[in-house]
Design a protein that fits this description.
The protein is α/β, with parallel strands linked by helices. It has 2 domains: 241 residues, no CATH class; 176 residues, no CATH class. Helices cover 35% and strands 11% of the residues. The N terminus is likely disordered. Helix 7 crosses helix 13 and helix 14 crosses helix 17. Guanosine-5'-diphosphate binds next to helix 7, helix 17 and helix 18.
């Protein structure tokens, strides 16, 4: 779809319409945003009446209903879409074959839903993942070495180098933020030969499958450090406090754990984390408790100590999340059920699917009409969606066509109704039928609720199955979808960043929003080859992302 530019009255009008040919178009029959919004408002009350009663259906009544099973099952036969085995279910060697398939259906069935990746993992990455898995099996929960490390943690002294060293990931912020930090922490663990354990407490339980065969990445519930999520308030052993002190492992003064705080909040950031002089302390500390809401992978690429290893792991730089995300993040069976049922019911029949992610931030409010205008401006201008023709309302189609699907994800419901109404009430100039779908509208973020997070994961995943993707700038929710899908999205820039349209992302990688607080990132000279692959993000001024 790259480069196909359809002239759009929406686009032209938004840009001011001052050129002579634009004035000629003022009598055009093509829908302008103002007309469209007016039309949508006309029909909105009716739609609300029709749909309102079914907003939040409860299925409790089903419990009391006796359902008689059909005689011969579904008329489509059983599991029709799974009859063909996926082409490359191990994703180019990323995935180990040593899992029980039924325990995590998404791991090997993903290839049935998401398009095959254009990027093959390097043989070195594949071998490092197998080496990491072996380390995790040796040191993971329920092993002797884990028990030994726990004893040392309890004693709060580190006197000798340990065979197993750990990074404990502590959740922070929404699901997108959490996922980008899990991927960052995993890459850090691989680079430093540490073992990643994740604190998947209540709200994240049952979202993801185990990624490493024959072991677990879940931090056991009897982990002796309590209240991990509030450690930033009063952690006794904070990396930045300990760093300055003269510590000596031989006299037992080296702590057995350190708390690392790598968030956007520069006041609290442990800004020396990426510096070379901090590495010996980090390397010798058996337990690192890491809390972050940032995709700090670009900073690892700027750190000289990892330069050689990273160039072997990732000869192509902009595929880090793509590979590691596809390796680590497999929706657990209940979420996979949501994904596959939704996909097969609504999206599987479309000839193409455009993902559209709308995220509104408090810091950058925008009216829904402005947002719709920005979306149309972008999607019509970039040839992602067709224009509509106001002279042909509800014309019957002469030939049956497969629809093009728009998968819309957002917390709110109004956008869906406007877009859907617009595309079924008026003919498109291309003759295409556009079907708009939105799986949920939760209205508010509720990261503390497990089922809310399951829906969020489902939607990120479904977006990653798109052929083309439009995302909202700044949103880590969108970053996860784009990078999992291997998609370079069109980014709707935030209104406070002064644009009413979109930009094509230079790579599929997420943006590291706040690198400014960390020393040794800004300071790195261009002598490091990888530094040339770290650029300012198009959606976040001052942010950094990997490009090729
Ligand atoms: P970010 O704040 O956009 O960077 O993304 P996060 O994922 O970190 O936090 C936003 C959270 O709000 C999500 O994790 C969801 O809980 C919720 N949310 C935001 N947008 C959507 C959406 O389109 N669909 C669903 N189901 N939840 C959303």
């Amino acid at each position: 779809m790259d480069g196909k530019r359809v002239r759009s009255s929406v686009d032209l009008e938004l840009q001011g319409g001052s050129k002579p040919e634009l004035q000629k178009r003022s009598t055009s029959t093509i829908l302008t945003p103002g007309m469209m919004i007016f039309t949508c408002f006309m029909f909105l009350p009716l739609m609300v009446l029709l749909l309102g009663a079914n907003r939040n259906p409860s299925f409790e009544w089903l419990l009391g209903v006796e359902i008689t099973a059909g005689k011969a099952g579904s008329k489509y036969g059983s599991s029709a879409s799974f009859s063909e085995p996926p082409n490359d279910k191990l994703l180019g060697g990323l995935l180990s074959a040593g899992f029980d398939e039924a325990s995590c259906l998404s791991r090997y069935q993903s290839a049935l839903y998401r398009k095959q990746s254009n990027h093959t993992p390097s043989p070195y990455l594949v071998s490092r993942l197998r080496r990491y898995e072996a380390l995790h099996r040796r040191c993971g929960p329920n092993t002797e070495l884990y028990q030994k490390a726990i004893e040392q943690l309890k004693s709060n002294r580190s006197t000798e180098p340990t065979e197993c060293n750990y990074v404990v990931w502590v959740p922070s912020d929404g699901l997108g933020n959490r996922i980008i930090t899990i991927v960052s922490a995993f890459l850090y663990a691989v680079l430093t030969d540490k073992v990643l354990l994740v604190d998947l407490s209540d709200d994240l339980r049952d979202l993801f499958c185990e990624p490493f065969p024959g072991t677990s990445w879940i931090l056991p519930s009897d982990f002796p450090v309590n209240n991990l999520e509030s450690l930033f308030l009063n952690a006794p052993l904070r990396f930045r406090d300990v760093l300055g002190k003269k510590l000596d492992a031989t006299d037992g003064s080296l702590p057995s754990y350190l708390y690392l705080h790598l968030t956007h909040d520069q006041r609290f950031s442990d800004h020396m984390f990426f510096c070379e002089e901090a590495q010996p302390l980090l390397q010798r500390t058996p337990w690192l408790l890491l809390r972050s809401n940032q995709y700090f992978v670009p900073a690892l690429f700027r750190a000289s100590q990892y330069e050689k290893e990273l160039s072997l792991l990732f000869p192509m730089k902009s595929v880090v999340f793509h590979h590691l995300g596809r390796y680590l993040l497999h929706p657990a069976n209940p979420v996979w059920g949501y994904i596959t049922r939704y996909y097969d019911a609504y999206l599987g029949n479309a000839k193409e699917m455009v993902g559209l992610q709308i995220r509104i931030f408090e810091a950058a409010p925008i009216s829904s009409d402005q947002m719709i205008a920005q979306i149309l401006n972008c999607s019509i201008h970039e040839g992602l969606l067709p224009e509509i023709n106001l002279t042909e309302p509800a014309q019957p189609i002469t030939q049956r066509t497969q629809p093009k699907a728009v998968l819309l994800t957002t917390l709110y419901s109004g956008y869906f109704e406007k877009l859907r109404n617009m595309y079924y009430q008026y003919a498109t100039t291309t003759g295409e039928a556009i079907a708009v779908y939105q799986p949920s509208h939760e209205e508010q973020q509720h990261t503390e609720k497990q089922n809310h997070n399951k829906k969020a994961l489902m939607e990120m995943y479904l977006l990653s199955c798109s052929g083309a993707l439009i995302t909202s700038g700044y949103s880590t929710f969108g970053y996860v979808a784009q990078a999992l899908g291997g998609l370079r999205p069109w980014i709707l820039l935030r209104p406070d960043k002064g644009s009413s349209s979109c930009l094509r992302a230079t790579s599929m990688e997420p943006c590291f929003h706040s690198p400014q607080g960390y020393q040794c990132i800004a300071e790195r000279s261009s002598s490091n080859e990888a530094v040339g692959h770290v650029r300012e993000c198009e959606d976040v001024p001052g942010g950094l992302k990997l490009v090729d």
